[in-house]
Amino acid sequence: MSALEFLLAGTLAAALPLLLAALGEMVVERTGVLNLGLEGMMALGAVIAFICVYHSGSHILGFAVAALVSAAFAMIFAGLVLGVRANEVAAGLAIGVLGLGLSALFGKTYESQTIKGLPDFGLPLLSNIPVIGPTLLTQDLVVWLTIIGTVVLWYVLNKTKLGLIITAVGENSVAARAIGYPVVAIRCAAVAFGGAMCGLAGAYAATVYTPLWADGMIAGRGWIALALVVFGTWQTGRVAFGAVLFGLLSIGQLSVQAMGVALPSQLLSSLPYLATILMLVVISRRRMSLG
After folding, report:
1. What is the predicted pLDDT for the residue at 123?
2. What pLDDT sits at residue 287?
3. What is the pTM of this model?
4. Torsion angle of alpha carbons 89, 71, 224, 185, nearest 10°?
């Protein structure tokens, strides 16, 4: 496989955990809540999904349980922030650290164990196109479902009454409450949705993208997903583009290493995170100039 074919084949899969987590957090932030616990929720979803698939062999069960557990875990954050009015930054960080600790605890006995991933399949007719057919257009089922789900989420947020309600709650909660919308309930639902999406992101990372368990395998993806929400200006299409871009960077550094480029592997591995920092600096400077 050439370097180009490797990039095309792996970019969407590398982008998927970032995309799922970022889309969930985007909905949360659109309601006016900031949850910094993505890393921990992804890690918890990853270990739960791995354990389920390891013992049952069912990826469907693994993804479903991971989504439910992470959503329930996110509701702890919702209870702290929306129930007892705790500081959302402190609560989010606490949830993130707790999730990482629990994932390390639950996954200790499964360290370095492997499971069977999901097979790839191509789109009918299109998979026969040279180069992009057997690579870009040949992905696992979760990738195709996520692409469909992203389009559905864009439609819901931009073309439906529910999307308008979510936006209204985030932009002016007092006015939304005054006209009868249950602001707290809507925010709780959004937080649960964001947690479920993080669970799905972690499940994909641990059972499909790299079907093995290793402590710390999420490796900062939750923080990158947070940055992607800002990068995408809380718009579904832009967030998706950013996730694909970072997926390309992740796979690109592997391609560069495989080509034998004389650069330290540690530097190449840090490229997605360096890009995250640069992206946030550019966004901050742009906001300052506009202000």
Report:
1. 78
2. 59
3. 0.90
4. -50
φ and ψ of 121, to 5 deg: -145, 145
CA-based torsion, 263, 265, 266, 269: positive or negative: positive
Q: Which amino acid is at 275?
A: A
Burial profile 20-32: b = 16 or more Cβ within 10 angstroms, e = fewer: bbbbbbbbbbbbb
As averages over each run of 10 residues, the pLDDT of the chain (291 residues) reads 73 93 97 96 97 96 97 97 94 96 94 90 78 84 95 96 95 93 96 97 95 90 91 90 87 68 66 73 64 56
Cα 130–10–155 angle (5° rounding)?
90
Nearest to 35 by CA among 187, 202, 183, 154: 187
What CATH number has the domain bearing residue 135? 1.10.3470
- Dihedral of the alpha carbons of 176, 182, 187, 188, in degrees to the nearest 10: 180
- CA dist., res. 91 & res. 36, Å (int): 8
pLDDT of residue 70: 97
Strand partners, 139: 121
Q: How big is the CA angle at 11 (ends 44 and 258), to the nearest 5 degrees?
A: 105
The length of the chain, given as a count of residues: 291
Domain that holds residue 56: 3-290
Task: Please report the DSSP string for 253-273 in residue order.
Answer: HHHHHHTT-SS-HHHHHTHHH
Percent of the chain at pLDDT exceeding 70 = 89
Single-letter amino acid, residue 266: Q
Number of domain units in the chain: 1
Sign of CA dihedral 243, 246, 247, 248: positive
